[in-house]
Design a protein that fits this description.
By secondary structure, the protein is α+β, with helices and mostly antiparallel strands. The protein has helices at residues 34-37, 48-51, 53-67, 80-88, 178-196, 214-220, 283-286; strands at 5-6, 23-30, 71-77, 92-98, 115-121, 125-136, 142-154, 163-170, 201-206, 226-228, 244-249, 255-260, 263-268, 272-278, 303-309. The chain has one domain: Deoxyribonuclease I, Chain A (4-Layer Sandwich), CATH 3.60.10.10. The longest helix has 19 residues, at 178-196. The two termini are 36 Å apart. It binds NADPH dihydro-nicotinamide-adenine-dinucleotide phosphate and calcium ion (CA).
């Protein structure tokens, strides 16, 4: 299912952004680790054939290429070489940073650890520097979650020479780990204050946190002056109803339905103007299998925003 882009004021969007006027399309997507999707995840409404790598790999790439972003911020990447070899033919470069102790490594026939990755169109953007780090608790000890920070310079067009920072992360999963996520968020926010300085900032990730959770408030109340892009689609400035919708097999044959907004695309609201957002599918469009399925290769929906650097 191909979604369209819409502007926050609901005027029709263009399928392709124009980098010539300083607009950068950024996609946020948890692509679902292959190592987890056929075992520990137990997606009981998804046909197993839809999860086979031989099938799913093409649909993951199709989604990336359909929306023609300049930057892809991805989580649960356990096939970096696959994405890198295909995207590099189109002029993209990428960086990958694995989780220290990825759960994928405990699965049979795994393809290595999963982690975060950022890919960028090197014909449009020049990488100035990048840094990858493990997130820490407030005690200073390391957790099993990571982030990547890339500093880019716009290569051409109206914004040529302007620099900005793009960051991605994947915070600790499961509801009862809200306190750990909060500490990870505080660590990340402090690092961004130090490293991003006054540069325009985009922060994308699977925060594994509902909108009312502390870690989301840490980002929204930060002096980094961040706005969550998808709140612009709602008249009351609320987050979307869901960015993931899956049904897992529970213990003793039960079912667990998980419908949450946990993925976010934040940007510096005084330095970028959000021109377009990739629309979210409706509940009807996810039925009957929800996520993942033959139509949607991940259990998370991709988010994408066209962000224009303010002069
Ligand atoms: P997280 O707790 O952050 O989650 C790991 C993955 O599990 C995420 O990608 C998450 O997806 C997914 N997930 C979330 N909820 C569920 C669920 N209800 N059922 C199945 N999968 C879910 O990972 P960590 O890396 O912090 O923790 C994993 C740790 O567990 C590792 O340190 C490893 O040592 C250990 N481990 C050990 C195993 C063993 O056999 N000994 C097996 C597996 C892990 P999303 O973000 O999309 O919600
Ligand atoms: Ca997952």
């Amino acid at each position: 299912l191909v979604r369209s882009f819409t502007s926050p004021d609901k005027s029709p969007g263009f399928l392709q952004p124009s980098l010539s006027d300083g607009t950068i399309r950024i996609m946020q997507w948890n692509v679902l680790a292959q190592g987890l999707c056929q075992t520990s995840d137990a997606f009981i409404l998804c046909p197993n054939e839809a999860l086979n790598w031989e099938f799913r790999q093409h649909h993951l790439l199709e989604e990336l290429l359909t929306y023609q972003a300049s930057i892809y911020c991805l989580q649960e990447v356990d096939h970096f070489d696959y994405f890198n070899s295909n995207l590099s033919k189109l002029g993209f470069e990428g960086v990958f940073y694995p989780k220290p102790d990825s759960p994928c490594l405990y699965e049979p026939n795994n393809n290595g650890p999963d982690g975060c990755a950022i890919f960028w169109d090197s014909t449009q953007l020049q990488l100035v520097s990048h840094d990858s780090f493990v997130l820490r608790r407030s005690s200073g000890s390391k957790t099993n979650q990571v982030a990547i920070l890339c500093r880019f310079k716009v290569a051409s067009g109206q914004a040529q020479g302007r620099e900005f920072v793009c960051v991605t992360t994947h915070l600790k999963a499961k509801k009862h780990h809200a306190e750990l996520r909060s500490q990870q968020g505080v660590d990340l926010e402090q690092t961004l204050c130090e490293r991003a300085g006054d540069l325009p900032l985009v922060l994308c990730g699977d925060f594994n946190a509902d909108p009312d959770e502390t870690v989301v408030q840490v980002m929204k109340q930060s002096k980094l002056n961040l706005l969550s892009a998808y709140t612009l689609l709602s008249p009351s400035q609320e987050e979307p109803l869901f960015t993931t919708w899956k049904v897992r097999g529970g213990k003793k044959g039960g079912q667990e339905e998980s419908v949450h907004t946990i993925d976010y695309l934040f940007f510096s609201k005084d330095k970028f103007h959000c021109v377009h957002l990739l629309e979210m599918p409706s509940e009807e469009q996810l039925r009957p299998n929800f996520l993942p399925s033959f139509a949607y290769p991940s259990d998370h929906l991709s988010l994408a925003a066209d962000l224009k650097l303010i002069d």
